[in-house]
């Protein structure tokens, strides 16, 4: 047990304190499923552990006000997010966070930028049958409040951005000018052609852009040049970027209807 490096435990809402791990002081990866985490006790365990990766799947917590804390965690999976407060892991490099359709992703992204300055890979995910939203708030003049993606510029180490089942229509990506993101993977997202154009024009380091199971919408859905035949499509606009489509749906222009005209 002392030499154990990876451990996966499954519970049924039992309280987890960290004592269950025992003397596994070389443990680097811990996966918990279905536990109620006692954050106070677990934090004491984290201070003396060498954990680098934590996966919390279908877990709850005993205290909604006490966040998890650790200076050693590099990789975190929250599936789903079970506290309003994100863990305080200042050395975090990879984050997978699953929310619901009513999750406040504006607030979450704000806290991600505040808590995780070393973040290199970010995945925001909404479960099947639900669609998350990050649309701008029209009644605010604050750029951060209206478009939380403006905060990506603060994450200067962020390279990989994965967004799953989130409505991205209406997002002004031009405020991300200066971001170092070079890989964007959209899965099950809704995005319009104008927004996609702004992405490839704004993210100067972008080298990979994937659309999987996405709903590609108007306006300018013609920019999604699946066959690469368009002279002004995404492939032409981002000639140094690999653009890939898989099982997507493209919104068609509505048919034009003309009133009946009587010719004399």
Automatic annotation (TrEMBL):
Which key words tag this protein in UniProt? Receptor
Sorted alphabetically, which InterPro entries does this protein's record hold?
Answer: LRR_dom_sf
Instruction: Indicate what this protein is called per its UniProt record.
Output: Putative a receptor for ubiquitination targets
